[in-house]
Amino acid sequence: MPGGGVIPVTGTTDINRVEAPVTVKAYLIVAFAAFGGIFFGYDTGWMGGVLGMDYFINQYTGLEYPNVKFPGDTTSDAYKAYKKAFVVPQWEQSLTTSILSAGTFFGAIMAGDIADMIGRRMTIIMGCFIFTVGGILETASTGVGVMSAGRIIAGFGVGFISAIVILYMSEIAPKKVRGAVVAGYQFCITIGILLANCVVYATQHRRDTGSYRIPIAVQFAWALILGTGLAILPESPRYFVKKGKLDRAATSLASVRGCPVDSEYIQDELAEIIANHEYEMSILPETSYWGSWLQCFSGSISKPSSNLRRTILGILMQMMQQLTGINFIFYFGTVFFQQLGTISNPFLISLITTLVNVLSTPFSFVMVEKLGRRKILIWGAASMVCMQFIVGIIGATAGKASAHNPAAVKAMIAFICLNIVSFATTWGPAAWIVIGEIFPLTIRSRGVGLSTASNWFWNCIIAVITPYLVADQPHSAKLGSNVFFMWGGLCCISFLFAFFLVPETKGLSLEQVDKMLEETTPRTSSKWKPHETFAQTMNLAEKHIEVPVGTKTETV
Ligand code: BGC
């Protein structure tokens, strides 16, 4: 509205009008935001490969290259013993790998606060900037000190990005496709992991700093693309409503939905978001900084709509996603397959597992919207229980009966791939979708941040403990393929968790999710239908809210 003015916003009583129609622009905006997943995947994907590069090992340890020390001799025992010892020391491997998760953990927790202070979009841009600073240190590093500093700073940036992209996408995506677009984020994670594997594979034999600097430096492209793109995209209208800047909320909603700011659709949707926020504030009024943190844990654990219950749900959801054991396959698959013997090219197997992950994820775009989040989480867990137990049983029977049994190994790889398909179409995307949907606006950014931090925390725990579970070394539990019984057992818990605690949020606006949680239990949630708007509940359907547009006025 050029020159400024006031639009009277009146809420609607029509539950079908709580969201403006979906336009191509809306799809494009959220599709672009999904790009943030590339960071997540790529950043977790390159370190393992770089740690195994000859040049990198030589630089970190000062040891001579095996083929220089033993020219023309690759079969003698002395060569083999030297090659075995030609590795980056265990503590340096552990430090450089896990320190990223420490950064992401704290980054994700802090990101929620910052997203409420400066906005979702600016927080992601800030994350790209911090990540770039960390990336510069990583690229410049020639030793463990600078590399670790770079990793923790880059991790901090990834923590910002991984939490706030989910928040931003969930807040601006149209409800009909919100699940599918957040699944698009998961798809980008899988592409990131695959790209990291490919780049590392291409540079692994170089005998110069390019071997590790190229894979690290490729990440600057992701930061540049995401940061520049978000500088152009609109801010989340829900953020402006939370800040009381209703004029800006109206303009940004109009931009996200591709409708004129004074159209009825925009008025109805905006009124619903405002009414919902007023409702939430009436239950838990704004308090001090620490008081508002405590609000994340307020209410009764037995009430599905309490903040405490939602926060626990988000944190456990991400914990159970990690405890499915998927990263055991992606982080330690190569070593595990090598231990089974008979595999001549472990890289190929690890490429196949990452490819299966990428190619099966798009099926989830349809599944999350057609079957719903709850159903696919329940069936996904059940399917992973079957696949993992089968792998464990083959390993404990045919695999054990004759060492290096190629048929048993092939069958295990096939079931591991089916397990990846089960994860990629269900728990992979759905865990992210659910945490973006279950929190009320008052605590949403912190809730998503805490849940994301839980993902990184468990990710780190798995990275640190699994080598000690499976490796055939003195101080390890030497579980070998029996580790799949452990993951299968944990998936049984995921199944029960999804069945008893996860509500169905498909097809509802974020505000309707709030109402559904108040009126149902997780097990009855799938049958819930919206019957009243928040504008009705708050009596805003009869009353005008004056929203100034095109001016600097920020009062209502
Ligand atoms: C998980 C990651 C995992 C990836 C695999 C994500 O949803 O959070 O830890 O590596 O899926 O595709």
UniProtKB/TrEMBL annotation:
It is found in: Membrane. PROSITE patterns: MFS, SUGAR_TRANSPORT_1, SUGAR_TRANSPORT_2. It holds the Pfam family Sugar_tr. Its main location: membrane. It comes from the Eukaryota. Residues 29-506 form the Major facilitator superfamily (MFS) profile domain. The keyword Membrane applies. Keywords: Membrane, Sugar transport, Transmembrane, Transmembrane helix, Transport. This is High affinity glucose transporter RGT2. GO terms for molecular function: carbohydrate:proton symporter activity.
